[in-house]
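Before the break, one more example. Copy the sequence into your notebook; we will annotate it together after we see the structure.
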Amino acid sequence: MKDLTPDKASLDAIEVASRDEIEALQLSRMQHSLSHAYNNVPHYKAQFDTQGIHPDDLNSLADLSRFPFTVKQDLRDNYPFGMFAVPKSQVNRIHASSGTTGQPTVIGYTANDLKMWSEVMQRSLRAAGMQRGDVLHNAYGYGLFTGGLGVHGGAEEMGLTVVPVSGGMTQRQVRLIEDFGAKGISVTPSYALSILDEYREQGIDPKKSPLQVGIFGAEPWTNAMRDEVEEAFDMHAIDIYGLSEVIGPGVSMECVESKDGLHIWEDHFYPEIINPETGELVPDGELGELVFTSLTKEAFPIVRYRTRDLTRLLPGTARSMRRMEKITGRSDDMIILRGVNVFPTQIEEQLMSVEQLAPHFQIELQRANRLDKMTVKVEVASSDMSESDQKAAAEMLASKIKSSVGVTAEVIAGEIGSVPRSQGKAVRVVDNRA
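Here is what the structure looks like once it is written out:
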């Protein structure tokens, strides 16, 4: 793979500032952001007053732990614009969740919010090794989902040539990557696998593609999948993190030169890690639930938002700002199977170690005779496999899941294409339990 390490002179000064400088800026911005939320969002005023806390009580960063959490239900309860801190006339753009699991969450952005979003996305793209004039194939979904437009805005301001292809039409994706000479691709990791399959289907060697870097986000993925993609395409696979409630993509980003966790742009987003059951803070380095407070957002300030994503905070390396470990799962999509906590990423990790099987999978949960059962549907890596080899590969994966995860799973290895493909976020778990 080509060395894409960015020139240190191109970095923003705050990216390599001292911790004292970063924390002084955070405190100043946090004091303003809490006051802005309290004075302009009735929900926050009521929450703070009920808890007997006021923005003036924040005298140090540690004081933030005295303030109440914000959860997704708060956003749903204030649908559509109750969490906005500015008049609608000052809102330049609105994004929203799909609402498939309840009332949609609606997010607003002022012109300054969009400018800040663009700036953190430019940082993120630069950290991935992209430079002015490069072609970026943007396969994130466009529309109310923040992925497509979020990446797009920063990429254009940075001077990249953006191909706004969105998801779907996988055959065409391959053609455009090849014809337009895309250096980078921004895409969900599960859909990247579909694009890889299409390369092979068309008889094109993915190693010879123009791609040098993949920017993968919107769903958890493992280092084993990173190895698979990097080996197949001979390109860097970089993790990006974001969520619409905080801003969208660009909250944190891996650096291409280190790939050792995602540097959080702490001058705009303040991270905490809590015990997901007690809500108590845990020290840096300990696994827990990620919580964010926005420091510079105008339209939609967010205070101690519980993301439900599980990770840990680590010291900075390629940048001064702290890193977050790759997301290992979510506290609210964790599977509890006969008393054992299971995350889809654990299944993926074992699947990637069985070379006879492709990296596509879906977990199906059922209940029979009052007992929960887990079935893992996978695909063979080659259409030439015999039935006995197919069965042996499935048994191997089942054994690995049992020994490493601690649960018994039935593994069904089907033909190529038998696992449903995703053009956006992968549906990893289908829960058919009543």
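The chain has a mean pLDDT of 95. The CA atoms of residues 246 and 294 lie 7 Å apart. Try to locate both features in your own notes.
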